[in-house]
């Protein structure tokens, strides 16, 4: 099907007003604030009583989430790691002393990885995408935004979601996902393959990764990649709309990030995703921000909570936003 193009910027759902500051660092992230992320309910958002963010634990899986992580990891072989590395990724091994302690680098046995990338033009404002987690067409677009290291403002559209799914249909005129809006150019469009080509030409070097260039085979493997999740991230769980979008530092290929994104979609929580695949300069930005890099990392401007650890993030989201 042909993409739907618009030369004017599409309106945002539920009247959020985004204000995006230009990056102040060479490799900075887009910073956004929103006056309103969802319909006002008059309900205040507070963290669970006595809540304390957990300490980050590298390469640790909470026992009750083991099967979830295994199921989410099935995507890696089906998609051959697409969404794990950014455009132009390269790596070399250097001595531990070659990289200062103030710079993020993965190391082991006295050796560190020096990772670089060749990214395209950076958009001033985040790309906006209406989608849901368990859709293979949506996954393809998420993989491309990860490869291009783009920050994306996601408006989750789970089945029976009362806010963003109806709004996306109203905006674009179709019951179809994903639906992308680029506020930098005024372009709004359907069709995952067309969105991928648009993003590659506008914010990359014009090339589309092989695993996103195989037509039907790409869609089939994107679907197979989600077999282990049993449709998670597709149906709405009644929730309290947040006044402001949450922020998530994550990347598409990570199973730990995947299970958090599923819950964000089910609760219909809009979120600004800072993509942090291997080679992303934003790994250094997060490292400088909190003194540690690990994904996912959640920032909730509605409560002030900032935290690592996927299992605990899920508990926090459900306790704070799900209507019990």
From TrEMBL:
Pfam families: GST_N_3
Segments forming domain GST N-terminal: 125-207, 244-324
Organism domain of life: Eukaryota
Listed GO CC annotations: chloroplast
The protein's name in its UniProt record: Glutathione S-transferase 2
Cross-referenced PANTHER family: THIOREDOXIN FAMILY PROTEIN (PTHR45288)
SUPFAM superfamilies named among the record's database cross-references: Thioredoxin-like
Organism from which the protein derives: Rhynchospora pubera
């Amino acid at each position: 099907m042909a993409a739907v193009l618009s030369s004017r910027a599409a309106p945002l759902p539920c009247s959020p007003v985004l204000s995006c500051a230009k990056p102040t660092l060479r490799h900075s992230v887009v910073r956004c604030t929103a006056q309103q992320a969802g319909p006002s309910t008059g309900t205040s958002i507070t963290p669970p009583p006595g809540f304390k963010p957990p300490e980050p634990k590298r390469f640790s899986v909470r026992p009750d989430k083991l099967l979830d992580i295994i199921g989410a990891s099935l995507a890696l072989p089906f998609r051959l790691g697409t969404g794990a590395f950014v455009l132009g990724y390269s790596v070399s091994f250097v001595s531990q002393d070659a990289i200062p302690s103030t710079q993020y680098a993965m190391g082991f046995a006295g050796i560190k990885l020096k990772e670089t990338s060749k990214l395209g033009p950076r958009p001033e404002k985040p790309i906006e995408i209406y989608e849901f987690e368990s859709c293979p067409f949506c996954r393809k677009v998420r993989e491309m935004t990860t490869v291009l290291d783009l920050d994306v403002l996601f408006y989750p559209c789970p089945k029976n979601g009362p806010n963003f799914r109806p709004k996306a249909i109203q905006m674009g005129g179709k019951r179809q996902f994903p639906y992308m809006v680029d506020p930098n150019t005024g372009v709004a469009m359907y069709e995952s393959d067309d969105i991928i080509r648009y993003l590659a030409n506008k914010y990359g070097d014009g090339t589309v990764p092989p695993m996103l260039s195989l037509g039907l085979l790409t869609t089939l493997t994107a679907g197979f990649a989600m077999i282990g999740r049993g449709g998670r991230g597709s149906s709405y769980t009644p929730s309290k709309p947040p006044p402001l979008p949450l922020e998530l530092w994550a990347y598409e290929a990570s199973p730990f990030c995947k299970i958090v994104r599923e819950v964000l979609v089910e609760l219909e929580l809009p979120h600004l995703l800072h993509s942090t695949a291997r080679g992303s300069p934003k790994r250094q930005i997060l490292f400088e921000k909190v003194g540690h890099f690990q994904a996912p990392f959640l920032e909730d401007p509605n409560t002030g909570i900032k935290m690592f650890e996927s299992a605990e993030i899920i508990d926090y989201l459900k306790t704070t936003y799900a209507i019990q």
